[in-house]
Every structure is written in structure tokens, then in C-alpha cells.
Amino acid sequence: MQLDLTDASLPAYKALASSVRLRIIRLLSSNPRMNVTDLAVQLNLSPAIILMHLNKLEAAGLIGFEKKGHNKISKLKVDEIYVRFPKKIYSAFEAYETQIPVGQYTAFSVQPSCGLAGEKDYIGKVDNPSYFMSPERMKAGMVWFSNGFLEYQAPNLLNADKHLEMLDLSVELGSEFPFSNNVWPSDITFFINNIEIGTWTSPGDFADVRGKYTPAWLPDNVNQYGIQKILRITGHGSYLDGQPFTDISLDSLDTNQQTFTIRFEVKNDAKNQGGCTIFGKEFGNYNQDIVFKVFYS
């Protein structure tokens, strides 16, 4: 589950703001099918009090109920929770931004499971890489593959009198598992201008709740949303989500080309080969394409 700092996330924050409810979550983590009586005994509270706390957890989307005979069984619906803070204010450089639709890749090599999804349906046949060259791919809002890469290009508009100060890449990413698997790590490697910047391990292919912008036609049990990643490359190294990432800096890149080449790859020798899903506009939790921003002075 992914939270932000809007009012829409308040139910989850309120549900977690209780020592009793935190203890309930810990109990359900170790014994995923406890009923109200079981929890009441463990916590030395009345069943009525326990049920009140369970209802708050359910309203926040953290747990679910199912009937087993006359018992009401509680089970966790969420493996992990991520909190996204507002973007930090950038330095006072000049900048231009390129928004690249996720289907506008210029090179690819993918293996099933793979596919593309648009506003109203899948694009071509799922698990057939041949459809990745269909002109209809430009309409894709979500693309996924189990192994291989997708490569995109953004224009390099810097003149000789402009000095490159920083590059930012923002994209919503997840793993790829047939249907979905909330615990399915995958090593996704970022490349800029054919230089390997670093590898981020996606924790899963999420379908615990529907994506905020995922179209209604997409089934509940497939990729719903990813995690927004912001990769920044500066003159003294690279950062991922504001944290030090690798030693690769702007000096490592050939920036005299007409374009910036951006690649997302699950390498053949990756420790966690769990695939890659890229979410674009009208899909996932962020209504955005791949955003590439160039800062200069």
C-alpha cells in the first residue's frame, strides 16, 4: 500500500495510531487467520472492543474479513506501506522537462510474461513480444516484461553556452509476476546514455488495492500500481529518492549527443529476476508519464 500526505490517506494513518491496533497487526502477521475471540484472549480485552478496532483497520484497507462457519476470521491485506512526501524544492537552475509516454520506447528486448495495456483494453496479445513493435504501443499506459529492457529517448536541447547541472528521472515502477504477487523482489537497473547508474530492488508486483488511476476494465488481480522513483544525477554522484545511490556523476556521461537515452533493464545475471512494470498516465498511483528533467545554468 502506498500513502501520501493528502486527506485520502488519513484513514490509514488513524488506523495505525493505536497501540492496540498495532498489536493486532503483529498478531495477524504471525497467525493470519485469527477470529475476534482469539484476539480478545491474546490482548486481554473484550470481544466488543476488539471488533471496534478491527472495523477501523478494515475501513483503512489494512485487513479483511471472511466467514468460516460462525466465526469471523481476520486477515492482513497489506504486506508493506510506503509514505510519499511532497517533492523537495529544486535549486534555482533553469530547466526543461520531457514527458515520455511509457509506450514510446525506441528499443526493446523483452521476454514473457510481457504485454501492454491501454485506456480500454490490452494492446495486442499478452505474452507475445512481437506486439511490442505495434504502432498501437504509443497508446499504452502500462507496459511489463519479465526479463530484458525498454529504452527511451529524450531530446538534448542544451546549446554550447549552457552548462548541465543536474538530471532528474521520475517514473512509477514495480515488479512483474503473472497476475500479481505483493512479495516478488526484482532488480531493476537504470541506464542513462548507456552508462549503468545503479540498481533498485522493487519489493513486489502490487494488487492489494486498486491503483488510484488504473482504468476500471483492468482486473483486480493484476498489476495495479508501482512505487514512484526519482533518480537524480549531479556533478558529485547519483541519488535515489533523495538518498545517496551510486558514485556515477554527470562527468561519467557523454552529454554531447543529440538525445539522452534512458533504459530500464532486468539483467540476465540479476539476483532477483522479478520483471519490471512501468506505469504511465491513467494507470497506477501517479498520473504521469516518464518524466525526464534537465537542469542547466
UniProtKB/TrEMBL annotation:
InterPro entries: ArsR-like_HTH, HTH_ArsR_DNA-bd_dom, HTH_MetalResp_TranReg, WH-like_DNA-bd_sf, WH_DNA-bd_sf. The lineage of its organism: Bacteria, Bacillati, Bacillota, Bacilli, Bacillales. Transmembrane segments: none annotated. Residues 1-96 form the HTH arsR-type domain. Keywords: DNA-binding, Transcription, Transcription regulation. This is ArsR/SmtB family transcription factor. Signal peptide: none annotated. The keyword Amino-acid biosynthesis does not apply. It comes from Sporolactobacillus shoreicorticis. It comes from the Bacteria. PROSITE patterns: HTH_ARSR_2.
